[in-house]
Amino acid sequence: MSPLERAVVDLVRAAGPLTGIELRDRLRGEGPLALWQACRTSPALETRTVGQRYLRLDRQGGAPRGWAGGWRDLPASPPPS
Question: Which of 29, 37, 38, 72 could form a disulfide with 5 if both were Cys (CB 3.0 to 4.6 A apart)?
Answer without folding.
Answer: 38
